[in-house]
Design brief:
This protein is an alpha/beta fold and about 375 residues long. It has three domains: about 60 residues, Winged helix-like DNA-binding domain superfamily/Winged helix DNA-binding domain (Arc Repressor Mutant, subunit A, Orthogonal Bundle); about 120 residues, Nucleotidyltransferase, domain 5, CATH 3.30.420.40; about 160 residues, Nucleotidyltransferase, domain 5, CATH 3.30.420.40. Helices cover about 40% and strands about 20% of the residues. It contains 14 helices and twelve strands. The strands form three sheets. It has a five-stranded mixed beta sheet with strand order 5-4-3-6-7, with helices on both faces. It has a five-stranded mixed beta sheet with strand order 10-9-8-11-12, sandwiched between helices. A two-stranded antiparallel sheet has the order 1-2. About 45% of the residues are buried. Bound molecules: zinc ion. Zinc ion (ZN) binds next to α7. The site of zinc ion has 7 residues, from α7.
Length: about 375
């Protein structure tokens, strides 16, 4: 692989080496080469040096830090509607917005609405579009591991194989990233605070149930993008799933499944949040349903724990109440060998509603500022990166 300024940037970002001397020692490069590569990074606005010019913070003089001024514009699409955000290169959400669209309209109309919403948000936040380094979009369906196009998404008719990255890239002129929604959330949780765990599984419990896998600090998508699609794992039961079979986890334990079951007893539940609220108010029928859901999810999750032995398991989404997480936790510990859970942390989302948008921005930043990408860019262009 080509060597260049990007390799120094990697050491600076991870904190392994942040001064000229440390960078020289870590790389074995000469003083002159280190200086030249640091200048290239500084000229491109990617790093700043404490004790000079605009650099701030409590860092000692002569230390370098990752400090690009660029913004990532992100859109997290749900089946209906979605959220937008402007996120800086450190994962801080600068501004949030909403999109009024439905993926059922098809890719072109939906993506036009996404671009319009992102441009409006950038204008509202008073960013020039030239400061946007990337756009990242999450979709509620499986994405192909190589071209990132949707792969037979059940709730997105007309999207399978559609070139989202190319279309939005041509419309906007910036690099575009596309991820599955649970994968983006998992990545956000993994990289939210300092060094990411070696492996993290995020289970999103909402109207549907899906999971995102971050293994060896990378999103694991599987051969066809369906890794982590746990909603159709057979758990027994008689409720019919949208896939046509009975006994799928999503048909038995998702927010939509609970709402459907409760409707037969006269409850009108339109959103998963209402289920959590009813349980918190002490409704015994809803509480029973939620406990049953937690046990079924816990059984599937303990299989994942035995198979993957993750460091961290995050239970996220609007149905992830403390009670549901407690039921999942006790089921996992009861059904797994001690060795598989010895170092396991089971926790709620730390990023909450921001998990998806922060994860998307982190995907874009970690790729755009990877050693490889930076070496390519700083070799061939002189414009600020
Ligand atoms: Zn199914």
């Amino acid at each position: 692989m080509k060597q260049g300024p990007g390799d120094l940037l990697h050491l600076i970002r991870t904190g392994e080496a942040t001064t000229r001397g440390e960078l020289q020692a870590a790389t074995g490069l000469s003083r002159v080469t280190v200086a030249k590569r640091l200048d290239a990074l500084a000229d491109a606005g990617i790093i700043s040096e404490a004790g000079t010019g605009s650099a701030t913070g409590g860092r000692r003089a002569g230390t370098f830090s990752f400090a690009p001024a660029g913004i990532v514009m992100v859109a997290a699409l749900d089946a209906v509607g979605g959220t937008t955000a402007a996120v800086d290169c450190h994962g801080t959400v600068v501004m949030r917005g909403n999109i009024n669209t439905s993926v059922a309209q098809g890719p072109e109309a939906t993506l036009d609405a996404v671009v319009e919403a992102l441009r409006a948000l950038a204008a509202e936040a008073e960013f020039a579009w030239t400061t946007v380094v990337a756009i990242a979009i999450s979709v509620p369906g499986p994405t192909d591991p190589t071209d990132h196009r949707l792969n037979d998404p059940p709730i997105m008719p007309g999207w399978s194989g559609w070139p989202i990255i190319e279309y939005v890239g041509e419309t906007t002129g910036v690099p575009v990233y596309v991820e599955n929604d649970a994968d983006a959330m998992a990545y956000g949780e993994a990289f939210a605070h300092g060094t990411p765990p070696r492996s993290l599984v995020l289970v999103k419990v909402s109207d549907y149930i899906g999971a995102g896998l971050v293994l060896d600090q990378r999103i694991f998508r599987g051969e066809d993008g369906s890794a982590g699609d746990i909603g159709h794992i057979h758990v027994g039961g008689t409720r019919t799933c949208r896939c046509g079979r009975t006994g799928c986890l999503a048909a038995e334990a998702s927010g939509a499944a609970i709402a459907k079951e409760m409707a037969e007893s006269g409850y009108a539940i339109s959103r998963p949040e209402a289920i959590v609220n009813l349980a918190a108010e002490g409704d015994t029928r809803v509480t029973q349903e939620l406990r049953r859901a937690g046990e079924l999810i816990g059984t599937v999750v303990s299989s994942m724990v035995s198979m993957l032995n993750p460091a961290t398991l995050v239970i996220a989404g609007p149905l992830a109440s403390p009670d549901l997480i407690a039921t999942i936790r006790s089921t996992v510990y009861a059904q797994s060998l001690p060795r598989a859970t010895r170092h396991l942390t089971i926790r709620p989302s730390e990023l909450g509603d921001d998990a998806g948008v922060v994860g998307l921005a982190t995907v874009a930043v970690n790729d755009f500022y990877s050693a490889e990408s930076v070496n390519l860019r700083l070799d061939t262009e002189t414009a600020p990166a």
